[in-house]
Amino acid sequence: MSRAEPVTGLILSGGGARAAYQVGVLAAIAELLPAGAANPFPVIVGTSAGAINAVSLASGAMDFGAAIERLTAFWQSFRSHQVMRSDWPGVIRQASRFVGHSLLGLGAQVPVALLNSSPLRDLLQERIHLGGIDEAIKARQLKAVAVTAFGYESGHAVTFYQGGGTIDAWLRHRRIGLPTPLSVEHLLASSAIPLLFAPVKIGDEFFGDGAVRQSAPISPALHLGASRVLVVGVSGNPRGADPQHPLQRSYTGQQPTLAQIGGHLLNSTFIDSLEGDIELLQRLNQFGHLLPHGTPTRSLGAAPVDVLVIAPSQPIDEIAARHRQELPRALRMFLRGPGATKTSGAGVLSYLLFEAGYCSELIDLGRCDALAKADELKRFLGL
Q1: Can you give the pTM of this predicted structure?
Q2: Number of C-beta neighbours around residue 199 at 10 A
């Protein structure tokens, strides 16, 4: 009996402006594919800004190469004002409302957010052709696409997915999969970084960034039928690198800034759960290989899943620090107080620097990192 063809899943994690790195990786994959090749990822899953990339790719799955070109142009032309109000009146008004209502309890109830991300809605409605998802599914160029958001009342990580055929919804501990036609609202909800961007109401509940409680970021792709997964991370510290010995590091002895603390909190939200899930999956693979031949590994939840991870080879915080002057003056002044414009606080900046120079450098880095793994990618994709 011949083995079924593997179903390849693509996992695009969150990370605000860091998601530009994913576009470079995808551009390198497009270069490695033969001319006119079909979409190599039947299952595409995204969280936070990765959800925007995932849906953009899925909506253009009928022509993978053209979809990557559009996505690259999209990120290379980014400006902060396309994502959030970056002018003085917009920044001051939003900050005043946040302090007045959320900290002092003054005025009418407003969404809890330091930044006004209303421009992003217009940008997504203009640039993303959601009807292309159904076209790709009907043409069998796509099996399913999914985005994950976090429900603030339920405390659940909800994966909204659109797919063909019979894909059963799922319910796990604090993880739910719901079939639904995807919309711009789902993308806005999935990318609403807590406290920075306002939550978005879908149905009867407000949702925020899906990375907040997504303890198993890879599992939605497996639920949707993927048997192997390519994970594109946004961590600036590549997995597998030898950690520097603490005694050999130099420390300033200064108290951390608010931005430095915030950067670590964002990293723990967007990066740690993904890296932990990869480690768990690799251990399950090792366990599955140790089982006696003929053991029903799938029923035991130990069916082997081939995983390939591509992550930045350079610290993204340092790249962001080099481009901090690209940020509009109002936002730069607003972030200076918490220390986000200092090198030590560039972690926060790396998530918010939606500017062409920074995004373009991340795209170039992603392309170089992927091409450095060209042989592994070709083997993984069966080229």
Answers
A1: 0.87
A2: 21
Calculate ∠ Cα 120-124-130, nearest 5°: 155
pLDDT score recorded for residue 239: 42
Residue with tokens 């992927």: 370
Hey, what amino acid is at 118?
Answer: S
Q: Which tokens belong to 33?
A: 């594919």
- 65 is written with which tokens? 């190469």
Work out the mean pLDDT of the chain and round it to a whole number: 84
How far apart CA 46 and CA 224 sit, in angstroms, is 13
Closest CA to 23 of 59, 63, 45, 56: 56
The rounded distance, in Å, linking the Cα atoms of 157 and 155 is 7
Please give the pLDDT value at position 132: 95
CA 269/CA 266 separation, integer angstroms: 5
Alpha helices per DSSP H over 87-170: 88-97, 118-127, 131-138
Task: Give phi and psi for 160, each to the nearest 5.
Answer: -90, 125
- Mapped onto helix, strand or coil, the DSSP state of residue 336 is helix
- CA–CA gap between residue 173 and residue 215 (Å, rounded): 10
Cα–Cα distance measured from residue 190 to residue 211, given in angstroms and rounded to the nearest whole number: 8
Neighbours of 103 (CB within 10 A): 8
Beta strands in 290-346 (DSSP E): 306-310
pLDDT tens digits along 160-207: 999 988 899 999 888 899 999 999 999 999 999 888 899 999 999 999
Q: What is the helix (H) or strand (E) element at residue 56, kind and residue range?
A: helix 49-59
Q: State the number of CA atoms in the 13 A half-sphere of 177 facing the CB.
A: 23
Write down the pLDDT at residue 342.
67
- How high is the pLDDT of residue 14? 76
Question: Rounded to an integer, what is the distance from CA 162 to the centroid of its chain?
Answer: 18
Q: How far apart are CA 326 and CA 346, in angstroms?
A: 13
